[in-house]
Structures are given as C-alpha cells and as structure tokens.
Amino acid sequence: MALTNLLGEREALAKNSEIYGDKVQEYMEAMGYYITETSPTHGGLVDQKYELPEIRGDREVWVELKWTDQRRHGKKFLEEMGKYFLHYMDRPPEKRFDVAIFGRNLENFKEWRKIFDVTKQTDEAIQEFYERVCKNDKLSEDHRRKIKSYPMDDFEEFLSDTHVYQADYDSLLMKIEEFEKDDRFKPDFFQREAEPITDRSELTTNLVEITEYPETLYIGDQVEGATQEVAFKLRPFTVPTWFKSNKVYSLLPPEEMPRAVKQFIDPDTVEETRFRSWVEADQGNADIGKRLIRAVVLSKGEDRGCIAINYRSDYHLYFPHEDPEAEVREEEGRQVTRYFGDGDSPFYRHHSLRIGILEYSGQYFLTLKPAILFTSNGKENRITGEQAKPLHDRFSPSRHGNNRKTRSRINHWWKILDYGDPKQDELDIGTEPVMLKVNKRPPRDTDERDDAMQNKWLGEFQ
C-alpha cells in the first residue's frame, strides 16, 4: 500500500501554482489582454500584469494568483491588499490600475461577496475590511500609517477597481475553450450595440419625497418703514421665514422668531393657517413653501452641528473641523473632515451635502447630492474660485462616477439628519426615498454584459 500527497510537497505546490498561473494567462489572453510582466521575470508584488490597448488605453490590470485556499481575512492577503492600495494611490487617477484576484478556493465565498460583489456589498463589511488592513501587523508601521492617511472614500474607489474570480483549473479551461470559439473579445466586438437587460427591479434615487409637512404657517404684515432688501439681508436663511409683498411668512410663531425676523413683523397682524392647504392654493404660495421647507432642512443640519451655507446659489451642509490638533473628524462612524497640513498652503477638506427642493403641484421633494468643499481654517473661510480648482481636480477625479459610493454618502447624511424617523415636532418634516421601478437595466457586471453581447451576436448569426 502507498500514500502519495501530490499537493502537499513544496515542490508540487509550486509547480501546481505555476500551472495555474499559466492557465490564468491563457484566460486573460483569450479575452484579448496582452501580458506585459510576470513575477518570475520581474519579481516584486504583482504576479502578472496585462494591458488591453484597443479598449482600455494604457490602463493596466494587475493579477494576483491564489492556488492554495484563501481566507478573506488572512494576514498575508490583507498585507497584499494594503500594498496594492498604496501603489494604486501613488499614481494619478488617470494612471491607476485594476486588480484581478484569481483564487482556486475562496473560503466562505458569500463573505467575499459582501465586499467585492456590487449587488451584495455592505458598508459595514467594507469598513471592517479596511480596519483589518490598517491593523495588520504584517505591514510595516510606515505602510499602516500611510494607509490610514487616505480617506475611506479612496479605499472604496480602490475596491471598486478590484475584481475577484473564484476559478479552478478546469473552469478556466472550459472558459478558454468557450472564448476561443467566438469573437466576443475581439476589439470590433465591443463596438457593437449591446441590448439592455430585461429585468424588473427597483432603483434607489437621490430624490426624497416629503410625506409629512409642518402643521402651521404664520402670516403677518411687515412693520412700516421696513424694506424687503434689509429684511432679507438680516434674516438668517436657516430660519423658516420669507418676505414678499410686505408680508412675512413663517413656520415659527412670533414668540419663537429670532430678533432679526421679529423686528420686521407687526405682531398684531399675525394670523395662523394650515401650511399644507395654503401651499396648495396657488403656485405663488407653493414657491414660498419650497423656501420654507429648505430652511427647515438646513436648520436641522445646524442642530446636528453643521455649518449651513449658500454657495453659488446652492445650499450646503458641512461639519466644521473643530480640533486643530486632530487630522480627521468623524460623525456616525465616517470621516466628514480632514486636515491637510503638508505644503505651503494648508487646507481642510469637508464632505458636504448639497440640498435642493423640487415642487410639483404642491408636492415637495428633496434632492440630495454629496459634494466637497475646502476651507482655510476648518470653518467658514471657504477656498473658492481659481484657488479651489486644483483642489477639486485632486479630490474629484473625473475618470468615472461611483454610484455605490454616492449612495453610501447619502445614507450617511441620512443617518446624521435622523431622516426616515417619525416627525419630532410640528415644525419637522417626514420623508421617504423615491424608488424607481424599471423593466430595463444595464448589465450588472462584465460577465452579464459579455453574455448579452454574445447572445446578440449569435442571434444575428442565425
């Protein structure tokens, strides 16, 4: 009798890993990629590097091979991901690369999907993964410190450019044979029109319906001699009041109005009416109501510690950087400000929420869009104009958008503002995100896109 372990010896493992790498290379080349580097010939971190000039220009794909069983939280894997991230961030946005991880057996595969599958990923899983990378003692202290110096948004961008494949030798062989039988990965194939996927689904938008409204509106006459221009100049725009045609409209009763508003209203003329029925009466009322609702939202942001501003006719909420000794400020578990002290002109970056109001026949909607602002002092001294342009170019690369990151930012602000909870008082509003039901959608990932294109090609051929 005999017992032979073909997988257990170091030489056998090395040979199998080499054969696996060869098969991954065949797979990539079958998809049209050109190999430019391999670790045996160039050494270093990356197992293989590829380019696809006809389709992707000079954007590379860096391939990591995992022949042995791979855990998502294995220290070696976390070390490699940390180093890939640092290489990724060392490059300008237009020169960054994609990462492709090929694993023969990815243990607990559904946990991998929580990070790398756009349909299954969660903010909590990504945050945990980031923290494990930052704490991994297989990385040097300098590497860990540098990783922590980048905001979570950059790490999420890196993950969005990382693609994981669970594939053994036989599955790779089958795919290679399939690719070689058709021309789906030839350059001219990608110039053909691909049909959208027919699939009923719901999409979350950044449009939020206001479902519960402030209850009472107070209307009074302006005091004699008061001009509307002066009133607007002195009125805080986060106070829900408006001046028009010698009238003052307010969601606050006279006794709760700040002095900057109270001095312009004749208290003996104030009357109460139901806000909802009043705004539905005519379009002019609806326009005033829109401004009052916006002030309610901005005021709630101020109650949470935000600064509210009117910047280029847009209304933003953002947090000040209150501790000059701290590098970052976090709220609800995520970074909202960061201090950049290196260089000749130190500055602060603030994640902000741009708030708009839409009105349709008396029905109001919020529009929420995350943005970035810069200040020189961490508070109200904003950096604007030509000085701000290079900063926006640095932190807002235009290579492509990232819907998942935008949705995550909106959800974070949602938590900060406590929306989705019941109304807190008569002045508060109730809200509900608008869902979009669609019958057609773009492909979920590259495999689905390729299958759709291949099916269209086969239909034309038949």
Automatic annotation (TrEMBL):
Bias regions of kind Basic and acidic residues — which residues?
442-453
Top-level taxon of the source organism: Archaea
The region called Disordered is annotated at 437-462
Q: What is this protein called?
A: Restriction endonuclease
Q: Which organism is it from?
A: Halostagnicola kamekurae
